[in-house]
Design brief:
By secondary structure, the chain is of the alpha/beta class. Helices cover about 25% and strands about 20% of the residues. The protein has 15 helices and 25 strands. One of its GO terms (molecular function) is flavin adenine dinucleotide binding.
Length: about 600
């Protein structure tokens, strides 16, 4: 579904007064700050907000992309899929992957204020308590455990009633949610025609698909209503929450957009370690380079791809790789860029007997215009909802595979199923007629690992991005199990009369060989890259950062984003990164007596 063919309609959006964003380097009043933060996504926006709470602390937040204000496709929840391959996307492409039959695929990342929180599908999932406890064990820091992190999850979340104000009794557990946080989280605000069928399936097939009242209580297994970052009829992102006008007016917080950080610079030594307390930045490939200095720290929050590219271009990484591009190695660390992990997915499609799917929005320009007018005038309707309808978190049976379990424990999923009220696929084209349902199957505890490496020494050239998904027998087994689970789910009698038939490619899957071919041909990514600058115990000789995010072997440089997660969560990462950054903000404040 690609709905960005009506850009002029964005002009009718009511745009409220917006605090000043600095659009040019020359407009900044100074080049020296206490903290310079790179990347305004779920990590950097939180840090900029929390560190600038202290009025005596100066903060510069640098974002490569433009403002999010007035960007219709980002604001309207149902238009989120239109942000792929757009001006608000980095428009990366992966290297060919054997697990995908040698295909290269688009690799979307948010190139806009708010980062990927301004472009994602808005799913808000915390992961299991076991996963947070595993982070605590792997890092040697009990502060990353579920019990210690739950207050930071509450600090991030602002539970918001759904847009249609329907009764949410039996759809979530209020005991595990906060109404006083920053990022709005809500339940679907528009009914889907299959909602009662899904709930009926949990009663007909309770062993395979047990109902879970709240998948964010630390025990996500089962089928439940999705929680998503929506405020009324609009996306709630890091930009709309942590960088809203009430915070942007702080005189000690400067936010610079349309500016790419090309490297961090060594500024001296501290106790024998190289110190990195400045960044080089520019607003165009051929434009002048400017230097911004931090009296305390530079914090990289550019994500699992951007952060690593900056590190490598700065001489921080594997010496053998850096020397090939003529880059002087300041810190030889082979772990930089390794361990890239992501969630592969397959969109499984059915023809359905319904006139209530969102397919008409993509099939008929007139219908789209009517729906958009309804959204604009009333803030209601099908466009006020995200594409997500229900989530299933599940495991393959114990003993069904010989390799060690990749999940964090028995309460953590190996795969996810996502219900979508319409045709959602990056690998197939929406037919001109017909109504559809999609159940996305996604491997959430993969064993495959990839890497980020430099392609050139030009910071405006994308690096080599090799997620290497579906590279192991285990991951392929889990994906096959997940696809089979979608078929089992719709076999329930509740779907009689609603499901017409499987979509063409899925219908051709009749045995193990055709299933494997289907997986290779149709797999893509849910774009959740993590793990390229992993966090390990303080004093460990491996890894990239200590448990507080400080880069090992250096001074003045910290990383707070998805790159430091040592293992990918069985979850959509944005909620974890928000919470991680909330705690990291306190760690930084404590280090400089700013609490």
């Amino acid at each position: 579904m690609h709905l960005s063919n009506y850009p002029l309609l964005s002009l009718i959006l009511p745009i409220s007064c917006v605090a000043t964003l600095y659009e040019t380097i020359e407009s900044l009043p100074t080049a020296t700050y206490d903290f310079v933060i790179v990347g305004a996504g779920a990590g950097g926006s939180v840090l900029a907000n929390r560190l600038s709470e202290n009025s005596s602390t100066s903060v510069l937040l640098i974002e490569a992309g433009p403002s999010n204000v007035g960007v219709l496709d980002s604001i309207v929840p149902m238009l989120s899929q239109s942000l792929v391959d757009s001006p608000w996307d980095w428009n990366y492409t992966t290297t060919p992957m054997p697990g995908f039959g040698g295909r290269s695929i688009p690799y979307p990342r948010g190139h806009i204020l708010g980062g990927s929180t301004s472009t994602n599908a808005m799913a808000y999932t915390r992961g299991s308590s076991e996963e947070w406890d595993r982070y605590a064990n792997l890092s040697g820091d009990s502060g990353w455990s579920w019990d210690e992190m739950l207050p930071y999850m509450f600090k991030n979340e602002k539970w918001t009633p759904p847009n249609d104000n329907h009764s949410t009794v039996g759809q979530y557990d209020p005991a595990f949610h906060s109404t006083t946080g920053m990022t709005s989280v809500s339940l679907p605000g528009f009914p889907h025609p299959f909602d009662p069928l899904v709930i009926a399936t949990t009663k007909e097939l309770p062993t395979a698909f047990p109902f879970n009242l709240d998948q964010n209580d630390g025990f996500p297994l089962g089928l439940g209503w999705p929680q998503q970052t929506i405020n009324g009829a609009q996306r709630s992102s890091a930009a709309t929450s942590y960088l809203s006008p009430e915070f942007m007016v702080r005189p000690n917080l400067h936010v610079l957009i349309n500016t790419r950080v090309t490297r961090v610079n060594q500024t001296g030594t501290d106790s024998g370690n190289p110190a990195f307390r400045s960044v080089e930045a520019t607003q165009s490939e051929t434009g002048p380079r400017s230097i911004f200095s931090a009296s305390k720290e530079v914090i990289l929050s550019a994500g699992a791809i951007g952060t690593v590219q900056i590190l490598l271009l700065s001489g921080i990484g594997p010496e053998k790789d850096l020397s090939a591009f003529g880059i002087n190695t300041i810190l030889n660390n082979p772990a930089v860029g390794q361990n890239l992990t992501d969630h592969p997915l397959v969109s499984n499609l059915w023809y359905v007997n319904s006139n209530g799917t969102f397919d008409v929005v993509g099939q008929n320009a007139t219908a789209f215009a009517v729906d958009l007018e309804q959204w604009n005038e009333t803030q209601f309707g099908i466009l006020a909802d995200s594409p997500l309808a229900f989530l299933v978190w599940s495991r393959v049976p114990d003993g069904s595979f010989s390799t060690p379990d990749t999940s964090a424990g028995p309460n953590t999923a190996h795969y996810e199923l996502l219900f979508v009220n319409g045709f959602l696929s990056n690998e197939d084209t929406l037919p001109a007629t017909g109504s559809f349902m999609t159940i996305v199957s996604c491997v959430t505890a993969p064993s495959s690992r990839g890497e980020i490496t430099l392609n050139t020494s030009n910071p405006f050239d994308q690096p080599n991005i090799n997620p290497n998904m579906l590279a192991t027998d285990f991951d392929n087994f889990v994906m096959a199990s997940a696809i089979n689970a979608t078929r089992e789910l719709v076999s329930a009698s509740a779907w009689n009369g609603y499901i017409i038939r499987e979509f063409d490619d899925l219908a051709a899957v009749t045995d193990a060989a055709s299933l494997q071919a289907y997986i290779q041909q149709k797999s893509t990514t849910i774009f959740h890259p993590v793990g390229t600058a992993v966090m390990t115990p303080k004093g460990a000789s491996w890894g990239v950062v200590d448990p507080d995010g400080l880069v090992k072997g250096l001074s003045g440089l910290r990383i707070i984003d998805a790159s430091i997660l040592p293992v990918i969560p069985s979850a959509h990462p944005q909620a974890l990164i928000y919470s991680l950054a909330e705690r990291a903000s306190d760690l930084v404040k404590a280090a400089y007596d700013l609490l």
